[in-house]
UniProtKB/TrEMBL annotation:
Hydrolase keyword on record: yes
UniProt entry tagged with the keyword Heme: no
Protein name per its UniProtKB record: Alpha/beta hydrolase
Endpoints of the signal sequence: none
GO biological process, one term: proteolysis
UniProtKB keywords: Hydrolase, Plasmid
Recorded GO CC terms: membrane
Entry-linked PANTHER family: HYDROLASE, PUTATIVE (AFU_ORTHOLOGUE AFUA_2G14860)-RELATED, MONOACYLGLYCEROL LIPASE
InterPro entries in the cross-refs: AB_hydrolase_1, AB_hydrolase_fold, AB_hydrolase_sf, Peptidase_S33
Domain of life of the native organism: Bacteria
Record-annotated AB hydrolase-1 domain positions: 26-288
Family: Belongs to the peptidase S33 family.
Amino acid sequence: MKQGKMVKIRGKDMYVELYGEEHEEAILYLHGGPGESCYDFSFHQAERLSTRFKVVAIDQRGVCRSEEIKENELFALQDLIEDCEELRKHLNVEKWSLIGHSFGGFLSVLYSSLYPGSIHKVILECPTFDFSLSSKSLLQKTARLSEAIGNFEIAEKCLKLANTAEQVSSKELLDKYLEYSDTLGEERMAIYRHNQNHPTDYALYSEEEWEAFYDKSEIHFDMLRAEGEIYQSLLPLLENIKVPMLLITAEYDPVTCGEQIRTFTESAENGEVVHFSDCGHSPHYENPDRFCNEVLQFLHSELFSQTSGNN
């Protein structure tokens, strides 16, 4: 069934899904993209996690089922953070934990650094902390897939750009990745997916509805790229975040590259790393049972210690 409802947040209708009991500790899920949706996360994880937590999942401002961003409307990266904080207050949540997937991990780091008092714990699922580093890694995987289908010209262009010692802007790297990966056609999602044993059923909405949703999301993504704040590396912020953080990495994920993992390991004061084998960019649906178990174990460790300390 269609679980969500529209909630007016800072003057815009935001699509919000709520699962679990009101009295339970809250989790906010932040999807990736920019411009994806909470749909596949809710499909695979909402019922699993809501047995222990109050789960809040949103389509971010201007994305998919949320209200579109109008022409000439002001919109910036900071709006996404302020929307989260205002939603927390609207739902009367004192503190919540975050699960940030991909670009949602980027948002989670930024949110945690700006509003540390609002956050219990942070789970970063195959995140990007730095669009330049992620784009280079994505270009390398695009090269391998292009070579496999015989498109050697694109493969060479990808590798040349990914491995260049010259200074190339984050904007150019991302733009070229988007351009070159599009040449893969139907094979493009192989960049991200590896284990397809747990597919998402998208039939809740028609093909026409999904097309309309993602037309809105494209405006969201284009405006973030035009503003340019997403091109700022968040790696320096990791050492300043004191709440416990769990970094989830995966064997075939090209987004969280080795340099980002090393920086997290060295910089995150309360950071842990869990690795998923035989998994691509989305462990929450490629290995949903283990993902749920890892999340529950990480979040309940603090809750248990708090309960014990009160006895």
